[in-house]
Every structure is written in structure tokens, then in C-alpha cells.
Design a protein that fits this description.
Length: about 200
């Protein structure tokens, strides 16, 4: 399902623990890490898609989390042409597909770490996970998604308690990033276990 500009509607999910650290998932068979995300199906609201993706990718149910906030508008990223050629060479929509537009949700985990199951679906997205600081360095994120991650974290930071400072980061201050966007229009990873199966 693409919009008229060629973007697929999508949700991104930032999960906080009680220490305001965020869930960071390692993609299956890769050395890249990311937040859970996934497409919005026809007839779904962003919130419904978020809960479905939350269960499929992380194994969490609605009762395991509390919604703290969400981005106010779509955040977009373009997928590079060379990536499209590799991933969608046989798909007829390749020529019109440009990338993703995302609504990002900030969730608080009210369940336990043991409620997280990476093998809740037949096609797991992650094979390991860990908690990392909210202002995560983004070197391990595929480069074409980094700006959206910066924008999403910067916008969602307003929902956090005052214990988290609006730090000056290598990629600019959070408020500067948001202003320019809207003007322009350590722990060891936790491996998936056999008990993670549904």
C-alpha cells in the first residue's frame, strides 16, 4: 500500500524500560541494529499497526506496555536505488516505491524483560536485543534511516521525565533538528531463546 508519492505507511516503536533505556534489536543474520517497525495494513490505524508489529517482532501484548506519546506527523525516508534493485527486483511496484513514511510511538514497558519474545512470529525480525541509552549513537543503523531516527527521538524526548537531559549530540540538538524539519516540511545483547517461541 503506497501513497501517491510512493511512500509506504509504517510505524516505528521506541520501548522504554524503567530506567528510560530503549529496546535495541539486532536484525536477524545482520550486524545492524534498529527499533521495531513495520507496515500499516489496509484498514489499520497507526495504533493498531503498532500493537500488531509489537507482538510480531518483540512478542509483547498491549497489557505489557503503556503508550506515552507519538510523533505528530509522518517522518519519511527514501530507500536508495541500489537497495531497491536488490530487494525488489522482481516486484512490479519497484518503479513507484520511494521509501517509508512513519508514525513513531513511545511506549513504556510495564511488563517484565522476560515478556519479550523475539520468536513470537514465524519470521523473526531480530535475533538479539539489549537496553541502550535513549540518546543512542546511530552508527549501527543503516545510513538512510539515521535522519528519521534522529528526528523521531528528538520529538519523542519531550514525553520523557526531566531526568533525561536534552543533550547536545553529534548530529545536532534535538530542538534544532525538529525546528529545521518542520520548517522544511551497553549491556550485552540478549539472544533469542528456544523458549521465545509462541
Amino acid at each position: 500500500m503506497l501513497d501517491r508519492e510512493g511512500y509506504r505507511p509504517n510505524v516505528g516503536i521506541v520501548i522504554l524500560n524503567s530506567h528510560n533505556e530503549v529496546f535495541w534489536g539486532k536484525r536477524v543474520g545482520q550486524h545492524s541494529w534498529q527499533f521495531p517497525q513495520g507496515g500499516i495494513q489496509h484498514g489499520e490505524s497507526p495504533e493498531q499497526a503498532m500493537y500488531r508489529e509489537l507482538h510480531e517482532e518483540v512478542g509483547l501484548l498491549p497489557e505489557h506496555v503503556q503508550i506515552i506519546g507519538r510523533t505528530r506527523d509522518w517522518l519519511r525516508y527514501d530507500v536508495p536505488e541500489e537497495f531497491l534493485r536488490r530487494q525488489h527486483a522482481s516486484k512490479t511496484h519497484r518503479a513507484s516505491y520511494r521509501g517509508q513514511k512513519q508514525i513513531w510511538f513511545l511506549l513504556r514497558l510495564v511488563g517484565l524483560d522476560s515478556d519479550i519474545h523475539l520468536r513470537a512470529s514465524e519470521h523473526p525480525e531480530f535475533d538479539a536485543w539489549r537496553w541502550v541509552p535513549f540518546w543512542i549513537q546511530l552508527e549501527s543503523v543503516v545510513d538512510f534511516k539515521r535522519e528519521v531516527y534522529e528526528l523521531a527521538l528528538s520529538e519523542l524526548a519531550r514525553y520523557l521525565s526531566r531526568g533525561i537531559r536534552m543533550q547536545q549530540l553529534a548530529w545536532g540538538s534535538p530542538l534544532d533538528l525538529l525546528q529545521s524539519f518542520y520548517e522544511d516540511e551497553a549491556d550485552e545483547p540478549k539472544e533469542a531463546k528456544d523458549t521465545d517461541k509462541p
